[in-house]
Amino acid sequence: MKLSIREARQSLSTIEQILNLEGTVTITRRGKEIAKVIPFNRPLSIPSHRTLREKSLRQKTGSEQLVRADRDER
User: Fold this and answer.
1) Residue 8: Cβ within 10 Å count
2) pLDDT at 73
3) What is the DSSP letter of 27?
4) Exposure on the CB side of residue 34, measured as CA atoms within 13 A
5) β-strand 25-29 against 32-37: which pairing, if any?
6) Cα dihedral 36, 45, 42, 19 sign
7) Which residues contact 8 (CB under 8 A, 6 or more apart)?
8) Phi/psi of residue 54, each to 5°?
9) What is the largest CA-CA distance in the chain?
10) What is the CA radius of gyration of the chain?
11) How far apart are CA 69 and CA 57, in angstroms?
12) What residues form DSSP beta bridges with 32?
């Protein structure tokens, strides 16, 4: 949910209810996002290492060979 600064000030007394319904509130000034309000006790998802490895591109040359070539060039 997006609120302007004025709307955020006016709804500050009900911000907890808004967070329970929406999850996050983005505050804007003149249409540009300036802040994000999130519940403090919201559980964060921790990505697994497997997911990170699957997203990474595989290199054809090992890092030790790249480091050695870089050092040899100096």
Assistant:
1) 19
2) 93
3) E
4) 10
5) antiparallel
6) positive
7) 15, 25, 27
8) -65, -30
9) 64
10) 23
11) 21
12) 29
Q: Given this model, what pLDDT does residue 15 score? A: 86
Sheet holding 25-29, edge to edge: 2-4, 25-29, 32-37
In tens, the pLDDT along 17-58 reads 888 888 889 999 999 999 999 888 767 778 788 888 888 888
Q: Is the pTM of this model over 0.85?
A: no
Count CB neighbours of 25 within 10 A: 20
Are 26 and 35 in contact, with CB atoms under 8 Å apart?
yes
Taken in order of first residue, the domains within the chain and their CATH numbers are 1-40 (3.40.1620.10)
Classify residue 19 as left (phi > 0), alpha (psi -120 to 50) or beta.
alpha
Neighbouring C-beta atoms of residue 3, cutoff 10 Å: 19
Q: Which amino acid, 59? A: Q
In this structure, what token pair is assigned to residue 29? 């000034």
